[in-house]
Specification:
It is globular and about 50 Å long. The protein has 2 domains: 10-202, H-NOX domain; 235-336, Arc Repressor Mutant, subunit A. Helix 10 runs parallel beside helix 13 and helix 11 (253-259) crosses helix 12. The two termini are 28 Å apart. It contains 16 helices and 5 strands. The protein is of the alpha+beta class. The protein has helices at residues 10-22, 27-32, 50-64, 69-76, 83-90, 95-105, 138-157, 176-183, 212-231, 235-246, 253-259, 264-273, 278-296, 301-307, 313-324, 328-336; strands spanning 114-120, 123-129, 165-167, 186-188, 195-199.
Length: 339
């Protein structure tokens, strides 16, 4: 699960440290409380447990007394902050190509969120989803990621296709005016999704900085980085990633084994060696997506049950009560209540 196995480029931790220093607080003490030293932030290969990242972000918000920390960190990140992914984006031919690039290679920068796009009439929605619930750091992570991606899109578009609005699935914060100022467009809260809206007509406009040869070279390096990352990924993480990409119609163990180029027996054995099983992973994914679908409000409980592969809605209700100790309808009612 993401809480034990995830990726995040260390440059983003450096930016949090710089923001802490900017307000006059001590980044050394901040890192030390999580068992880290500032010198470690120079190591591009540094990986920390998810629990440590959670502590670092929550501690940084407290230390700086800045609830809008995610926005301030996102504002600091320029195109070059995103390594070869940012370089490829800057040399893309169209924003459609940039969107495809981020859908395929965002994982080389972080696995905390996934990006996909949806066409709604004359609009394109860039939707950021959580492979697993981010919990207490959800607001900070989504604000930082969406602002930095929005700024990157603005940078490469150079005015030919402006982001129209931003959507966040949480309550309006006290610093909403700051968010509007930083995003430079309408920001809507209490939404059923997280992301941004672009005009469909603009995503195929030629970009002025386009360099197809440089773009191809940058994508090759992104692919190399992705392949390296996936080679080091556990088999259980691969299974989870494939399931999360589908988000419905989950493959059977036999089909999953075929997708991973192993036999069903080998898949079962190797998952046992990782102290998990196909059944446990499927249960975890269903639990994660059930919470996300219920919170979004888009689907009925019957539709959620169907999407999660339950042949009988009663089976889904029993499973959800086992996970959350309340029924799906009661959980949805709790989410709908104002804070």
């Amino acid at each position: 699960m993401i809480k034990t196995e995830f990726s995040l480029s260390v440059i983003y931790l450096r930016q949090i440290a710089e923001q802490i220093r900017r307000v006059g607080a001590d980044p050394h003490a901040w890192l030390a409380r999580s068992g880290l030293e500032e010198a470690q932030l120079a190591d591009s290969a540094l990986q920390i447990p998810y629990s440590t990242l959670q502590c670092l972000i929550l501690d940084a918000v407290t230390l700086t007394n800045e609830p809008a920390l995610g926005l301030l960190v996102g504002e600091r990140l320029v195109a070059n902050s995103h390594g070869m992914l940012g370089y490829a984006a800057m040399n893309s031919s169209t924003l459609r190509q940039v969107i495809s690039l981020f859908e395929q290679y965002l994982l080389v920068r972080t696995s905390l969120v996934l990006l996909s796009h949806e066409i709604h009439g004359d609009q394109v929605h860039l939707v950021f989803t959580e492979p697993a619930p981010l919990g207490d750091i959800r607001r900070s992570v989504l604000e930082a990621v969406i602002l930095t991606v929005k700024n990157l899109f603005d940078h490469v578009a150079m005015g030919c296709c402006n982001v129209r609005e931003i959507a966040f699935p949480f309550a309006t914060p006290a610093y909403a005016a700051l968010a509007h100022e930083l995003f430079k467009c309408d920001v809507h809260y209490h939404q059923t999704w997280a992301g941004m809206v672009l005009p469909l007509a603009g995503i195929d406009q030629p970009l002025k900085m386009a360099d197809p040869a440089t773009y191809r070279e940058a994508v090759q390096i992104c692919q190399y980085e992705l392949d390296k990352l996936l080679r080091n990924e556990s088999l259980g993480a691969k299974v989870r990633r494939i399931m999360l990409q589908k988000q419905s119609g989950f493959p059977s163990l036999n089909v999953m084994a075929r997708l991973l180029h192993v036999t069903p027996r080998t898949l079962h054995r190797r998952l046992l060696q990782e102290q998990t099983s196909y059944k446990e992973i499927l249960e975890d994914i269903r639990h994660t997506l059930a919470i996300e679908f219920l919170a979004s409000g888009h689907l009925s409980i019957q539709e959620i049950s169907y999407r999660l592969g339950y042949s009988d809605i009663a089976n889904f209700r029993r499973a959800f009560k086992r996970w959350e100790k309340i029924s799906p309808s009661a959980y949805r009612d709790l989410q709908a209540r104002p804070a």
